[in-house]
């Protein structure tokens, strides 16, 4: 069994998209990096829709080819029915030459982690980090439990920098007590399950039998309901269906009652029931995650960085999560590389990184949570990011924000940034890709 070294330059906690891509960035730069992942890969994970923006990050980590070779389902965009209003986005109309993807996360995350290892990162599965002692600022000590053998072993590893990529476990935010829930009104619960032989929504906005998946490009289908929304994501062998609902919807229900609620809704809701008419539910596949909208007030320090979901999590309506994890990994590892070269400047690098990360999180939150307010957002940082975006990208985001009823906050920030005027056709954009109804 491979031994965990007693020291290295960087310890990464967690092997999801944030941790594995950070490990690859560092290993490609010749940095001694150890990644500790608490479970054995491949492992299940929710978050199966990727927007095409992610390719630029996988190009940077040189893993795009391996992803292409896997043959994940390529999607052409999204169709939403929000408050009975139908919208559609086609990625090809916004200059993307590569598709979005519908991915099985167990396989996608495994490809990324194996790639990190092939680039020279030292990867360990079944090792759970318990906490970090930062009392010696030059050499943080990471404590872990090695679960690879029946008798668990407690040990530690010294390093110069810690990268927390532990996802919703938020290892360091828990330790620092810096985790905040976005707002009391935003207590949402997600529940999702899998079906075999579901029909899917094609790029033509029609309902297609699963046999046509190789002939018609699918889209991610999103629909508002019950104060929240649902997704329908067709994968290679099964289809993922999930609800994001106010937690109060299922208050007092046990697991079995929630499953009854889920399956009954799937049978009754318009559009979804048609898509699922030929489908069979995969028994035992229903999973839940409670109250997941949070952020940490402390994501970067001189010797640590919290990236991906370990720094914040936003409602996933725009499929931003994995892309956000990749973005954080890219900038945090840039700061670490610079700090290893110029340790005297490491505080400055971490401050720069913190402001970039808060900016991106704030931007995602403004887009996804709309009228729910500015809770946890630094509006000036978000406005600066808006100003730096290419016009076509901004147009895509304007269109995306108009697909839900959550665009008020986003529009307000755009207006304050002086960008709405530049879009003389902003009201035309709002009605772009708008249709009266779906044919099924
Ligand atoms: C309901 C729902 C739907 C979503 N839909 C989408 C979507 O369609 N598209 C999208 O892009 N995103 C989506 N997301 C978000 C996406 O899943 C996350 O943003 C993404 O997984 C973040 O990657 P990560 O690497 O930060 O964390 P994770 O993928 O959660 O990885 C964290 C890893 O850390 C490990 N770990 C945890 N604690 C420890 C520890 N103590 N020691 C060692 N290892 C540890 C875990 O085992 C895990 O493997 C969705 C999220 C939810 C909840």
Record keyword descriptors for this entry:
alpha+beta, globular, six-stranded mixed sheet, 440 residues, binds flavin-adenine dinucleotide, 3 domains, D-Amino Acid Oxidase, Chain A, domain 2, nine-stranded mixed sheet, 26 strands, FAD/NAD(P)-binding domain
Describe this protein's structure.
The chain is of the alpha+beta class. It has three domains: 10-48 and 104-181 and 294-355, FAD/NAD(P)-binding domain (3-Layer(bba) Sandwich), CATH 3.50.50.60; 188-289, D-Amino Acid Oxidase, Chain A, domain 2, CATH 3.30.9; 378-435, no CATH class. It is 33% helix and 25% strand. It is built from 13 helices and 26 strands. The strands form six sheets. Strands 5, 6, 14, 17, 18, 19, 20, 21 and 26 form a nine-stranded mixed beta sheet that branches. The longest helix is centred in the last third of the chain and has 24 residues, at 346-369. The structure holds flavin-adenine dinucleotide (FAD). Residues 13-19, 36-39, 43, 45-50, 128-129, 165-169, 171, 190, 242, 289, 292, 308-310, 316, 319-323, 325 line the site of flavin-adenine dinucleotide.
* Chain-averaged pLDDT: 92
- What's the CATH H-level superfamily name of the largest domain? FAD/NAD(P)-binding domain
CATH domain topology of the largest domain: FAD/NAD(P)-binding domain
Low-confidence segments, given as residue ranges, are none
Number of helices: 13
User: How far is the first residue's CA from the last residue's CA?
Assistant: 55 Å
Q: Any idea what the radius of gyration is?
A: 22 Å
Number of strands: 26
Q: Given the C-alpha coordinates, what overall shape results?
A: globular
Residues in helix, %: 25-40%
The oligomeric state is: single chain
Describe the largest sheet. 9 strands, mixed
In CATH, the architecture of the largest domain is 3-Layer(bba) Sandwich
Query: What structural class should be given to the helix and strand makeup?
Result: alpha+beta
Which ligands appear in the coordinates?
flavin-adenine dinucleotide
Indicate the proportion of strand residues.
15-25%
Number of domain units:
3
CATH class identity of the largest domain: Alpha Beta
